[in-house]
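Support case: user asked for a sample of complex input and structure output to validate their parser. Sending the pair below.
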Amino acid sequence: MNKYKGIFRENLWDNNPVFVQILGICSTLAVTNSLTNTFIMTVSVVFVAGLTNFTVSSIKHLIPGKVRMIIQTLIISFFVIIVDLLLRAYLPAISKSLGPYVGLIITNCIIMGRAEAFAQSNKPLISLWDGITTGIGYMWVLMAIAFIRELFGFGSLFGIQIMPEGFQTWTIMIMAPSAFFILGVVIWIINNIKLSKESSK
Amino acid sequence: MAPDINPLVLLFASIFTSNILLANFLGMCSFISISKDMDSANGLGMSVTAVLTITTAINWVVYRFILIPFDLLYLRFIVFIIIIAATVQVLEMVIDRFSPALYMALGIFLPLITVNCAILGVALFMEIRGYSFIQSLVFALGSGLGWWLAIVSLAAIQKKVLKAPVPEGLKGAGITLITIGFMAMAFIGFSGMLIVQ
């Protein structure tokens, strides 16, 4: 059981895909101006990452080494198509506002990275866990960014008005640059926490 | 069907105001990891522009003449990504055959392009916005040039940043992201001149 706990910690903090490895930030930075969209996007990433890892790990003996990249891409695309169809059927409004970004989960480097680095050499169940926790590690950072952006950009959280009447919304927060600034500052804060921990050791 | 946008307007819009990287956040992974060195930035920018233009043209034709008539729209993610991967593979062989020097210079960048989200992103944007063939081509070319411009500018800025007294915790990815943020603000300054959605 300890192994599972270790992976959990590793993926959520020590080796977080966003602020340590700086992977997969492409498509989701674009949707972090709304908590709802970010939530749906990151849940989709958790789903695709977990199941891709599970599948890759289950059939790894059947895949010839030379073509494994393309097979992994196909497996990822398969799960992304499922997500896309589900969103279209049950959440058409969100599916529309996410636009092409759902499809872009295919090229999210985190998923391919975990399939290659973890699932190729581990058992299916633990790979599923690794995929899910990596997705959660990704989720919490993006949700934090979306929280700040939506709160100041629209004065709301999950679309519900939070800020008092007459609050001047910060337009920059819903535009592209703020996503870069906030992620940069988040990385800065986290590095500082890590540095101070190291120096106190 | 296709929106009524002059291709020239679309070209400038995709280079500046809706820059694929700075406004749509696509192609960030390779952007952040490669942007430390001018030559690599140039090589990658060139490859991305070429691959983007070629694959978008092929993707448009396949989308229009195969996926739509046969009602296979739900397969588009798989089809697009396979076409991109195949094009990169073929391009790699062609360059290796005709210009080994260029092949050596591009090195690992060519295969990396397959997973560059900008390529798939442009294909998906052209599909959603319903661009005509010429519009798609111009949009892809402009996006490639815009990406190239952005990565070369960032590589140039990074050279200065390396010598600057950056706080310890901000070094590396942190300062890079903040620099990109400022670049994005500068590029957004162009909007109002052209708006293309």
